[in-house]
């Protein structure tokens, strides 16, 4: 933990002073942050961000979301993406359809796919292992971060393998990472209200822990707006921080690569009108508190799909050091509303970071910088090239 120099010295609240000194906060102290003026909390969060990551740089990833099936038997009340098998617009992609999407990603210089789906009871284990092998054979430069803990829990129950055996099979077939989707609020009271059949917190951590032990990439997540209390939010952050301590110590540093947080979207879902959601103010407050609480996770993402580009730019001064990724295709947040944009081009993310006062850098999924784009050249690229880039996202 890094103590801060002078910029947060004007903050008077003892909890913020403690955080500014780089000292770890407990649950009650984190909860107290919600009652303090946001500018004060943001100032400390921003100073901690500047101390923990390169203060001049904002990173992002060129990737694509691929949702291989929307058939799901979990039926979360907050989900507008899933379908039952009998619904006309249900789908499962075949390998060639997925390959086509990856070729489009390769055309714009992408290096990883984030591949998740519904919990589809009709797909055998061979669909998944065959898919991973197909991708590695035809797209060897693409990293595959795939399957949420919810999907893995289903595989475990269905395919007659222990969690360790299952992960070994998936890794052998080509799996590089297990994204931490489905974190929402890792408190079972909240989860049971929003989605009775949803994976519970203990299973989420058990699966993430096994993935980290096996060296897989993982990321921590949080969604606010279910009506959860500040105490529940604080406990969610502490559980993530505890897991990160454990992974860092026991798994040779292979903990969460970062933290991503967004706000609940309820359009077209059964929670519409029942869950409060969260305003931009609450989003920025929660982001700043996460930066302060998660002293062992250096990379914090701003969420443009849920909050839009302008709030994402502001988030870079509330503790975030990263703009997430291009996605090219986002189906889950967008099905439930979200902001009016569900993919973004490399050029747009460069512009967003540049206009906010930072040097943009392209990273891999482990937050290692792999390219320093020529900002002037990219921002002045021809209209023809811009159209080509935009067409990839639109052509899904
Ligand atoms: S959030 Fe995931 S698990 Fe829940 S219904 Fe939607 S696709 Fe299924």
Automatic annotation (TrEMBL):
<dbReference type="InterPro" id="IPR022431">
    <property type="entry name" value="Cyclic_DHFL_synthase_mqnC"/>
</dbReference>
<comment type="pathway">
    <text>Quinol/quinone metabolism; menaquinone biosynthesis.</text>
</comment>
<feature type="binding site">
    <location>
        <position position="79"/>
    </location>
    <ligand>
        <name>[4Fe-4S] cluster</name>
    </ligand>
</feature>
<dbReference type="GO" id="GO:0044689">
    <property type="term" value="F:7,8-didemethyl-8-hydroxy-5-deazariboflavin synthase activity"/>
</dbReference>
<dbReference type="GO" id="GO:0005506">
    <property type="term" value="F:iron ion binding"/>
</dbReference>
<feature type="binding site">
    <location>
        <position position="303"/>
    </location>
    <ligand>
        <name>(3R)-3-methyl-D-ornithine</name>
    </ligand>
</feature>
<dbReference type="InterPro" id="IPR045567">
    <property type="entry name" value="CofH/MnqC-like_C"/>
</dbReference>
<protein>
    <recommendedName>
        <fullName>Cyclic dehypoxanthine futalosine synthase</fullName>
        <ecNumber>1.21.98.1</ecNumber>
    </recommendedName>
</protein>
<keyword id="KW-0479">Metal-binding</keyword>
<dbReference type="GO" id="GO:0009234">
    <property type="term" value="P:menaquinone biosynthetic process"/>
</dbReference>
<keyword id="KW-0411">Iron-sulfur</keyword>
<dbReference type="InterPro" id="IPR020050">
    <property type="entry name" value="FO_synthase_su2"/>
</dbReference>
<feature type="domain" description="Radical SAM core">
    <location>
        <begin position="58"/>
        <end position="310"/>
    </location>
</feature>
<comment type="function">
    <text>Radical SAM enzyme that catalyzes the cyclization of dehypoxanthine futalosine (DHFL) into cyclic dehypoxanthine futalosine (CDHFL), a step in the biosynthesis of menaquinone (MK, vitamin K2).</text>
</comment>
<feature type="binding site">
    <location>
        <position position="184"/>
    </location>
    <ligand>
        <name>S-adenosyl-L-methionine</name>
    </ligand>
</feature>
<dbReference type="Pfam" id="PF04055">
    <property type="entry name" value="Radical_SAM"/>
</dbReference>
<feature type="binding site">
    <location>
        <position position="78"/>
    </location>
    <ligand>
        <name>S-adenosyl-L-methionine</name>
    </ligand>
</feature>
<dbReference type="InterPro" id="IPR034405">
    <property type="entry name" value="F420"/>
</dbReference>
<feature type="binding site">
    <location>
        <position position="148"/>
    </location>
    <ligand>
        <name>(3R)-3-methyl-D-ornithine</name>
    </ligand>
</feature>
<dbReference type="GO" id="GO:0046992">
    <property type="term" value="F:oxidoreductase activity, acting on X-H and Y-H to form an X-Y bond"/>
</dbReference>
<keyword id="KW-0408">Iron</keyword>
<feature type="binding site">
    <location>
        <position position="72"/>
    </location>
    <ligand>
        <name>[4Fe-4S] cluster</name>
    </ligand>
</feature>
<feature type="binding site">
    <location>
        <position position="76"/>
    </location>
    <ligand>
        <name>[4Fe-4S] cluster</name>
    </ligand>
</feature>
<dbReference type="InterPro" id="IPR058240">
    <property type="entry name" value="rSAM_sf"/>
</dbReference>
<keyword id="KW-0474">Menaquinone biosynthesis</keyword>
<dbReference type="InterPro" id="IPR013785">
    <property type="entry name" value="Aldolase_TIM"/>
</dbReference>
<dbReference type="Pfam" id="PF19288">
    <property type="entry name" value="CofH_C"/>
</dbReference>
<keyword id="KW-0560">Oxidoreductase</keyword>
<feature type="binding site">
    <location>
        <position position="325"/>
    </location>
    <ligand>
        <name>(3R)-3-methyl-D-ornithine</name>
    </ligand>
</feature>
<dbReference type="GO" id="GO:0016765">
    <property type="term" value="F:transferase activity, transferring alkyl or aryl (other than methyl) groups"/>
</dbReference>
<keyword id="KW-0949">S-adenosyl-L-methionine</keyword>
<keyword id="KW-0004">4Fe-4S</keyword>
<dbReference type="GO" id="GO:0051539">
    <property type="term" value="F:4 iron, 4 sulfur cluster binding"/>
</dbReference>
<dbReference type="InterPro" id="IPR007197">
    <property type="entry name" value="rSAM"/>
</dbReference>
<comment type="similarity">
    <text>Belongs to the radical SAM superfamily. MqnC family.</text>
</comment>
